[in-house]
Fold:
Amino acid sequence: MSPKSPRPAVPTPGADHSTDPYLPEHGNGGYQVEHYALDLDYRVGPNRLAGQASLTAVSTQPLSRLSLDLSGFRLDRVAVDGRAAKFTRTGEKLHIRPARPVPVNTRFQVDIRYAGNPAPVPGRWGDIGWDELTNGSLVASQPIGAPSWFPCNDHPSDRASYRIAVTTDSPYSVQVTGNLVSRRRRASTTTWTYERPEPTPSYLMSVQIGQYDEVSLATSPVRQRAAVPARLRKPFGRDFGRQEQIMKTLEGYFGPYPFGEYVVVVTDDALDDPIEAQGMSIFGANHVDGRRTYERLAVHELAHQWFGNSLTVADWRQIWLNEGFATYAEWLWSEATGGRSAAAHAGEWYDRLSAGPNDILVADPGVDRMFDPQLYKRGGLTLHALRQRLGDDRFFPLVRDWATMRRHSPVTTEQFTTFTEAHAGESLTDLFAAWLWTKPLPLFPAR
Ligand SMILES: [Zn+2]
Structure:
């Protein structure tokens, strides 16, 4: 029942493109990265980043050349397996010719020394990636911003572990998506080292630098902490005061939280939208008002730790599997805390969507509509339709099993529909065809 999409050819060795139907210019063929070790030295005032990146990768084809994604920066040295390698730059690609070709199925290491003023990657969604704040910097990379701060194979299907050390002026707090393993202070600078063992796509890695207070949010069932500007601590305390309850509620629906801890960062500047990273969410100062106005966004971003981060889109067509679940989590939280029921939220959004236009396929929205609100709400409605069809007794175990069985794995819509039908023990072709693969709105699922 999935529409046939052309199956792209396997990239040739050194191919500077991925097989992504939406963003083929991001990601590269011929290898998979296993581990990134990044040593970064950053100065806030001049916005200057000097980095040493060591990538451990495995070739999937013989490689006489290979490509990485990197935007900006001067390169001082590129080496493959310790030998200096020739390289050229075109646009946001780094092309490398190893001194000795890498045979197929071989582990190899690429070392790159680079420096410059990091700047976000311009694109159809605006400027994305490493960006300066009034006093510090942030990284918000979804979907194409990672090459703004490190050389990478920038595609969600290439997921690796990370070790990131950031040295910067001591007054600044450095929050990196990972577990803090050391913090060493010298005369005027501090080096913060983090490790991220879970397989993580480049776009979900993030560095947050600012003058933040560290606040504990919860110690059970998951350690949660926050980095917050001192001036916002009081309203933040109220707005994010129910994180423990939100975590327990979402674990009840989706199973165990997939990472070691959860970190909330609030920047001292306003942000258009909060953004998820691996084990972390980033909010703007404008999302803190002391009245819990944006609590649903706190729920949405936490839900992404299961749907989007642990379960990662195999390619960008599958984005509704992130946003539909995160949207439905908002409605479930409302229902669980005595607010409006998920059915009431679904009904309201159904009525709003009924006014039209209904002009995207949820399961294949097209690159320009990946982040369209219509996809978010109809994605949530799709899950509500599934819940109505199956009943709570079958729907909630299914969602929990999906999140648990695909933990830390790439996912596709086809895998979800196949899994769902097998779990439910019945054909749901009509439901998925109507909600995911048809533009006009189906009838509202019976309440
Ligand atoms: Zn989202």
Q: What stands out?
A: Residues 373-390 form the longest helix (18 residues). Residues 31-209 form a domain with the Immunoglobulin-like fold (CATH 2.60.40.1730). The two ends are 26 Å apart (CA to CA). The longest strand covers residues 31-43.
